[in-house]
């Protein structure tokens, strides 16, 4: 059976804990609630040293320093890049800056862990991956649902082959709220709406679980405030559906939204249907944080995994431990390009 990324992370953690002198020094660019959470979890797991913090919002930096009082506050990414002792940069800034900031850090010889999306489109994503390849530095993206215990169980079932021919994958991410920052609603800044914000996670989960097969065809419908739109109109979608045909005759159906009257805070799921049954990753009771894995046999359901699971920040810990072990560029970064390619097709780019 395929070794899971949690197994790999645990093995890496064991090896890195025995070599504490190799603990990398990291700079954290953007320490709003997501960036601060990633910083705190990496520090809690002793995976790296929080060396530098930078944020354009003074309040964010002050809050982060409360959690990492030994860190030094600087006022720009460049200031961190000029520190020879810094091994990596963790980026949690608005999407418009991800590609440029990641590329600058990689070109300066620093490993990078970036919030999704890595780029606003395929070209930006390719550019960052190429920068990582040229500098031979480890590039990670916070595709955090891969690291949930529930999705790991789903991945193992899909990889085992026990589902037989997987002919359908249903992906759903409805968020009853919309983003609270204005830049999310500007396509030039965000790269898109709910698809690039939420759908990116689900497209990644489907392709990753299936070993990134060739994508044959993509069709999509985008809506804003109940009306069909195209990206050329300068609007971002708040509801989208897409049909994705994969090699091997697998059909993927994606639905995602902001502000949907869903009757609960969120509906999140990735369900794989095969000739020998099904398996699903699902949120519980509208939660953004609690997930179960379920195996389906006709009308019977078997629960494979249930909360609690402290998965928030786990992807960053795994990346930091790989940096500590001296890992450079990994060809798995091409997966970020393959996901971006599907998103571009959904957007008609």
Automatic annotation (TrEMBL):
Record-linked InterPro entries: Gfo/Idh/MocA-like_OxRdtase_N (IPR000683), Gfo/Idh/MocA_oxidrdct_glycsds (IPR050463), GFO_IDH_MocA-like_dom (IPR055170), NAD(P)-bd_dom_sf (IPR036291)
Superkingdom: Bacteria
Alphabetical list of PANTHER family matching this protein: BCDNA.GH03377
Record's protein name: Gfo/Idh/MocA family oxidoreductase
Domain Gfo/Idh/MocA-like oxidoreductase N-terminal: 26-142
Domain GFO/IDH/MocA-like oxidoreductase: 152-279
Species name: Pontibacter mangrovi
Keywords assigned: Oxidoreductase
One MF term in the entry's GO annotations: oxidoreductase activity
Ranges annotated as biased composition (Low complexity): 9-21
């Amino acid at each position: 059976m395929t070794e899971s990324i949690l197994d790999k992370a645990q093995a890496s953690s064991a090896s890195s804990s025995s070599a504490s002198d190799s603990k990398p020094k990291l700079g954290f660019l953007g320490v709003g609630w997501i960036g601060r959470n990633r910083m705190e979890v990496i520090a809690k797991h002793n995976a790296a040293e929080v060396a530098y913090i930078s944020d354009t919002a003074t309040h964010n930096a002050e809050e982060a320093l409360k959690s990492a009082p030994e860190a030094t506050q600087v006022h720009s990414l460049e200031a961190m890049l000029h520190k020879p002792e810094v091994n990596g940069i963790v980026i949690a800034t608005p999407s418009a800056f991800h590609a440029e900031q990641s590329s600058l850090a990689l070109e300066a010889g620093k490993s990078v862990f970036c919030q999704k999306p890595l780029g606003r489109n395929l070209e930006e994503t390719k550019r960052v991956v190429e920068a990582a390849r040229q500098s031979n530095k480890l590039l990670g993206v916070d595709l955090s649902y891969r690291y949930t215990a529930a999705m790991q169980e789903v991945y193992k079932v899909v990889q085992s082959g026990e589902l037989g021919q997987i002919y359908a994958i249903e992906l759903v991410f409805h968020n009853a709220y919309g983003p609270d920052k204005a830049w999310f609603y500007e396509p030039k800044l965000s790269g898109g709406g709910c698809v690039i914000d939420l759908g990116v996670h689900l497209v990644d989960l489907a392709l990753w679980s299936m070993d990134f097969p060739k994508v044959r065809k993509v069709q999509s419908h985008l809506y804003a405030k109940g009306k069909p739109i195209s990206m050329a109109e300068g609007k971002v979608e708040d509801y989208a559906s897409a049909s994705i045909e994969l090699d091997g005759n697998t059909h993927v159906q994606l639905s995602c939204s902001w502000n949907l009257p869903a009757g609960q805070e969120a509906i999140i799921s990735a369900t794989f249907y095969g000739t020998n049954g099904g398996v699903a990753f699902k949120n519980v009771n509208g939660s953004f944080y609690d997930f179960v894995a379920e195996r389906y046999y006709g009308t019977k359901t078997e629960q494979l995994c249930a909360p609690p699971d402290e998965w928030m920040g786990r992807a960053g810990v795994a990346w930091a431990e790989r940096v500590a072990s001296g890992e450079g560029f990994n060809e798995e970064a091409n997966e970020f390009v393959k996901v971006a390619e599907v998103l571009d097709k959904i957007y008609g780019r």
